[in-house]
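Allow me, if you will, to draw on your knowledge of protein folds for a short while. I have a record of one protein: its chain in single-letter code and its fold written as C-alpha coordinates. The full record is reproduced below for your convenience:
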Amino acid sequence: MSQLRLITYNIAHGRGLSPYQGLTSNVRVRYNLLRIARLLRTLQADIVALQEIDFDSHWNGRIDMLEFLREKMRFPHACQGVNNIRAGKKPLRYGNAFLSRQPLCAWGNHPFGSARLGEKGFLYAQVDFGDRLLPLINLHLDFRSKNRRLAQLGQVTEFVKSLGARENGKALLAPLVCGDFNVGQRPGSDAVRELLRFLAERDGYELYPQGKGSKTFPSFFPTRALDFVFVPKTVQVARCEVLPVHFSDHRPVLIDLKS
Protein backbone atom coordinates (compact mmCIF):
# COMPACT_ATOMS: atom_id res chain seq x y z
CA MET A 1 0.00 0.00 0.00
CA SER A 2 1.41 3.39 -1.00
CA GLN A 3 -1.81 5.45 -1.16
CA LEU A 4 -5.31 4.45 -0.15
CA ARG A 5 -8.64 6.30 0.02
CA LEU A 6 -11.13 4.74 2.42
CA ILE A 7 -14.70 5.84 3.06
CA THR A 8 -16.84 4.53 5.91
CA TYR A 9 -20.57 5.14 5.59
CA ASN A 10 -23.75 4.04 7.33
CA ILE A 11 -26.25 4.14 4.45
CA ALA A 12 -29.34 3.53 6.63
CA HIS A 13 -30.84 0.78 4.45
CA GLY A 14 -31.09 3.21 1.53
CA ARG A 15 -33.98 5.10 3.13
CA GLY A 16 -32.35 8.54 2.90
CA LEU A 17 -33.59 10.90 5.61
CA SER A 18 -36.79 8.98 6.32
CA PRO A 19 -37.04 7.86 9.97
CA TYR A 20 -37.88 4.28 8.98
CA GLN A 21 -37.07 2.30 5.83
CA GLY A 22 -40.55 0.76 5.72
CA LEU A 23 -41.94 4.25 4.97
CA THR A 24 -39.70 4.70 1.90
CA SER A 25 -40.88 3.51 -1.52
CA ASN A 26 -38.74 1.06 -3.47
CA VAL A 27 -38.31 3.69 -6.19
CA ARG A 28 -36.99 6.17 -3.63
CA VAL A 29 -34.59 3.59 -2.20
CA ARG A 30 -33.10 2.97 -5.64
CA TYR A 31 -32.80 6.70 -6.22
CA ASN A 32 -30.99 7.12 -2.90
CA LEU A 33 -28.64 4.27 -3.78
CA LEU A 34 -27.90 5.87 -7.16
CA ARG A 35 -26.97 9.12 -5.41
CA ILE A 36 -24.67 7.24 -3.04
CA ALA A 37 -23.05 5.36 -5.93
CA ARG A 38 -22.46 8.58 -7.88
CA LEU A 39 -20.91 10.24 -4.83
CA LEU A 40 -18.55 7.35 -4.10
CA ARG A 41 -17.59 7.00 -7.75
CA THR A 42 -16.84 10.72 -7.98
CA LEU A 43 -14.68 10.53 -4.86
CA GLN A 44 -12.68 7.65 -6.40
CA ALA A 45 -12.57 5.60 -3.23
CA ASP A 46 -10.31 2.55 -3.12
CA ILE A 47 -12.22 0.89 -0.28
CA VAL A 48 -15.71 1.57 1.03
CA ALA A 49 -16.92 0.21 4.36
CA LEU A 50 -20.72 0.19 4.59
CA GLN A 51 -23.05 -0.32 7.53
CA GLU A 52 -26.83 -0.92 7.51
CA ILE A 53 -26.77 -2.35 4.01
CA ASP A 54 -29.48 -4.79 2.90
CA PHE A 55 -28.93 -7.90 0.81
CA ASP A 56 -32.51 -9.25 0.71
CA SER A 57 -35.06 -7.42 2.88
CA HIS A 58 -38.79 -6.96 2.35
CA TRP A 59 -38.86 -3.31 3.43
CA ASN A 60 -37.00 -2.08 0.33
CA GLY A 61 -38.07 -4.48 -2.39
CA ARG A 62 -35.54 -7.24 -1.62
CA ILE A 63 -32.82 -5.42 -3.55
CA ASP A 64 -29.24 -6.63 -3.17
CA MET A 65 -27.74 -3.25 -2.31
CA LEU A 66 -24.16 -4.45 -2.35
CA GLU A 67 -24.44 -5.80 -5.89
CA PHE A 68 -26.34 -2.68 -6.97
CA LEU A 69 -23.60 -0.37 -5.65
CA ARG A 70 -20.79 -2.59 -6.87
CA GLU A 71 -22.16 -2.54 -10.41
CA LYS A 72 -22.90 1.20 -10.46
CA MET A 73 -19.48 2.06 -8.97
CA ARG A 74 -17.63 -0.51 -11.08
CA PHE A 75 -15.88 -2.07 -8.10
CA PRO A 76 -14.36 -5.46 -8.95
CA HIS A 77 -14.33 -6.83 -5.39
CA ALA A 78 -16.87 -6.97 -2.57
CA CYS A 79 -17.82 -9.00 0.49
CA GLN A 80 -20.75 -8.91 2.88
CA GLY A 81 -21.49 -9.71 6.49
CA VAL A 82 -25.10 -10.62 7.28
CA ASN A 83 -25.93 -10.01 10.94
CA ASN A 84 -29.72 -10.24 10.67
CA ILE A 85 -31.46 -13.16 8.98
CA ARG A 86 -35.22 -13.70 9.00
CA ALA A 87 -37.10 -15.92 6.57
CA GLY A 88 -40.80 -16.05 5.81
CA LYS A 89 -43.17 -13.60 4.15
CA LYS A 90 -41.19 -10.60 5.40
CA PRO A 91 -37.55 -11.65 5.05
CA LEU A 92 -34.64 -9.64 6.39
CA ARG A 93 -30.94 -9.92 5.50
CA TYR A 94 -28.69 -7.00 6.34
CA GLY A 95 -25.43 -6.04 8.01
CA ASN A 96 -22.05 -4.64 6.88
CA ALA A 97 -20.06 -4.79 3.64
CA PHE A 98 -16.82 -3.87 1.88
CA LEU A 99 -16.28 -2.66 -1.67
CA SER A 100 -12.69 -2.66 -2.91
CA ARG A 101 -10.62 -1.99 -6.01
CA GLN A 102 -7.96 -4.37 -4.67
CA PRO A 103 -8.55 -8.12 -4.19
CA LEU A 104 -10.11 -9.14 -0.86
CA CYS A 105 -9.16 -12.37 0.86
CA ALA A 106 -9.69 -14.24 4.14
CA TRP A 107 -12.85 -12.34 4.88
CA GLY A 108 -15.29 -13.44 7.56
CA ASN A 109 -18.34 -12.11 9.39
CA HIS A 110 -18.76 -11.98 13.16
CA PRO A 111 -22.26 -11.19 14.51
CA PHE A 112 -22.21 -10.10 18.14
CA GLY A 113 -25.29 -12.17 18.97
CA SER A 114 -28.19 -14.07 17.42
CA ALA A 115 -31.10 -11.60 17.43
CA ARG A 116 -33.30 -11.81 14.32
CA LEU A 117 -33.77 -8.02 14.21
CA GLY A 118 -31.35 -5.25 15.11
CA GLU A 119 -28.31 -7.48 15.58
CA LYS A 120 -24.90 -5.84 15.11
CA GLY A 121 -21.51 -7.28 14.25
CA PHE A 122 -18.17 -6.75 12.55
CA LEU A 123 -16.88 -7.76 9.14
CA TYR A 124 -13.21 -8.68 8.66
CA ALA A 125 -11.32 -8.76 5.37
CA GLN A 126 -7.77 -8.56 4.11
CA VAL A 127 -6.81 -6.35 1.17
CA ASP A 128 -4.17 -8.08 -0.94
CA PHE A 129 -1.38 -5.72 -2.06
CA GLY A 130 0.82 -8.51 -3.40
CA ASP A 131 3.61 -8.76 -0.86
CA ARG A 132 1.51 -7.44 2.03
CA LEU A 133 -1.98 -7.88 3.43
CA LEU A 134 -3.92 -5.02 4.99
CA PRO A 135 -6.52 -6.21 7.53
CA LEU A 136 -9.78 -4.25 7.73
CA ILE A 137 -12.43 -4.35 10.44
CA ASN A 138 -15.82 -2.76 9.71
CA LEU A 139 -18.05 -2.68 12.78
CA HIS A 140 -21.45 -1.48 13.88
CA LEU A 141 -22.09 -1.27 17.64
CA ASP A 142 -25.33 -1.22 19.61
CA PHE A 143 -27.03 2.19 19.93
CA ARG A 144 -29.04 1.53 23.08
CA SER A 145 -26.60 0.45 25.77
CA LYS A 146 -23.06 1.46 26.72
CA ASN A 147 -22.56 -1.84 28.52
CA ARG A 148 -23.66 -3.76 25.43
CA ARG A 149 -21.30 -1.71 23.24
CA LEU A 150 -18.38 -2.45 25.56
CA ALA A 151 -19.22 -6.16 25.55
CA GLN A 152 -19.35 -6.14 21.75
CA LEU A 153 -16.05 -4.28 21.65
CA GLY A 154 -14.55 -7.05 23.77
CA GLN A 155 -15.26 -9.47 20.92
CA VAL A 156 -13.48 -7.14 18.50
CA THR A 157 -10.38 -6.75 20.68
CA GLU A 158 -10.11 -10.51 21.24
CA PHE A 159 -10.21 -10.97 17.49
CA VAL A 160 -7.47 -8.36 16.98
CA LYS A 161 -5.32 -10.17 19.55
CA SER A 162 -5.62 -13.36 17.50
CA LEU A 163 -4.11 -11.79 14.36
CA GLY A 164 -0.55 -12.83 13.58
CA ALA A 165 2.33 -11.03 11.88
CA ARG A 166 2.22 -13.12 8.69
CA GLU A 167 -0.34 -15.11 6.74
CA ASN A 168 0.20 -17.31 3.68
CA GLY A 169 3.78 -16.13 3.48
CA LYS A 170 2.84 -12.44 3.39
CA ALA A 171 3.31 -9.73 5.99
CA LEU A 172 0.09 -8.86 7.83
CA LEU A 173 -0.04 -5.13 8.55
CA ALA A 174 -1.69 -3.55 11.58
CA PRO A 175 -5.46 -3.46 10.97
CA LEU A 176 -7.55 -0.44 10.07
CA VAL A 177 -10.71 -0.34 12.18
CA CYS A 178 -13.72 1.72 11.11
CA GLY A 179 -17.48 1.91 11.32
CA ASP A 180 -20.46 3.24 13.26
CA PHE A 181 -19.74 3.21 17.00
CA ASN A 182 -23.11 4.60 18.17
CA VAL A 183 -21.46 6.20 21.19
CA GLY A 184 -22.82 8.85 23.54
CA GLN A 185 -22.72 12.61 23.20
CA ARG A 186 -18.96 12.99 23.67
CA PRO A 187 -16.92 11.79 20.65
CA GLY A 188 -14.29 10.10 22.84
CA SER A 189 -16.76 8.28 25.07
CA ASP A 190 -17.27 4.62 26.07
CA ALA A 191 -16.42 2.20 23.22
CA VAL A 192 -14.33 4.71 21.25
CA ARG A 193 -12.20 5.53 24.27
CA GLU A 194 -11.72 1.87 25.17
CA LEU A 195 -10.79 0.80 21.65
CA LEU A 196 -8.33 3.66 21.25
CA ARG A 197 -6.70 2.75 24.54
CA PHE A 198 -6.37 -0.89 23.47
CA LEU A 199 -5.03 -0.14 20.00
CA ALA A 200 -2.70 2.65 21.13
CA GLU A 201 -0.98 0.28 23.52
CA ARG A 202 -0.37 -2.15 20.65
CA ASP A 203 0.55 0.05 17.68
CA GLY A 204 0.20 3.70 18.66
CA TYR A 205 -3.13 4.26 16.92
CA GLU A 206 -4.83 7.61 16.36
CA LEU A 207 -8.51 8.36 15.96
CA TYR A 208 -10.05 10.13 12.95
CA PRO A 209 -11.88 12.42 12.26
CA GLN A 210 -10.71 14.88 14.87
CA GLY A 211 -11.85 18.23 16.20
CA LYS A 212 -14.98 20.26 15.57
CA GLY A 213 -15.56 18.76 12.15
CA SER A 214 -15.91 15.19 13.43
CA LYS A 215 -19.71 15.11 13.89
CA THR A 216 -21.56 12.79 11.52
CA PHE A 217 -25.11 12.38 12.90
CA PRO A 218 -27.78 13.44 12.07
CA SER A 219 -26.56 14.34 8.63
CA PHE A 220 -28.44 17.62 8.08
CA PHE A 221 -27.39 19.29 11.36
CA PRO A 222 -24.92 16.88 12.97
CA THR A 223 -24.64 17.00 16.75
CA ARG A 224 -22.85 13.70 17.45
CA ALA A 225 -19.66 11.99 16.29
CA LEU A 226 -20.53 8.33 15.69
CA ASP A 227 -18.38 7.25 12.73
CA PHE A 228 -14.62 6.76 13.05
CA VAL A 229 -11.45 5.30 11.57
CA PHE A 230 -8.63 4.02 13.80
CA VAL A 231 -5.24 4.36 12.08
CA PRO A 232 -1.92 2.81 13.24
CA LYS A 233 1.18 4.99 13.58
CA THR A 234 2.82 3.15 10.69
CA VAL A 235 0.34 4.81 8.31
CA GLN A 236 0.33 8.53 7.46
CA VAL A 237 -2.97 10.37 7.22
CA ALA A 238 -2.89 12.88 4.35
CA ARG A 239 -6.52 13.97 4.69
CA CYS A 240 -9.61 13.20 6.71
CA GLU A 241 -12.97 14.83 6.14
CA VAL A 242 -16.60 14.36 7.12
CA LEU A 243 -18.50 14.88 3.87
CA PRO A 244 -21.50 17.28 4.03
CA VAL A 245 -24.00 15.11 2.16
CA HIS A 246 -27.49 14.03 3.16
CA PHE A 247 -28.15 10.72 1.43
CA SER A 248 -28.49 8.95 4.80
CA ASP A 249 -28.99 9.99 8.42
CA HIS A 250 -25.18 9.65 8.75
CA ARG A 251 -22.50 11.61 6.95
CA PRO A 252 -19.67 9.56 5.39
CA VAL A 253 -16.07 9.85 6.57
CA LEU A 254 -13.32 10.02 3.93
CA ILE A 255 -9.68 9.37 4.81
CA ASP A 256 -6.59 9.39 2.58
CA LEU A 257 -3.73 7.19 3.80
CA LYS A 258 -0.07 6.80 2.82
CA SER A 259 2.56 4.30 3.86
Summary: The domain at 3-258 is CATH 3.60.10.10 (Deoxyribonuclease I; Chain A). The mean pLDDT is 94. Helices lie at 26-43, 65-73, 146-162, 190-203. The chain is about 20% helix and 35% strand.
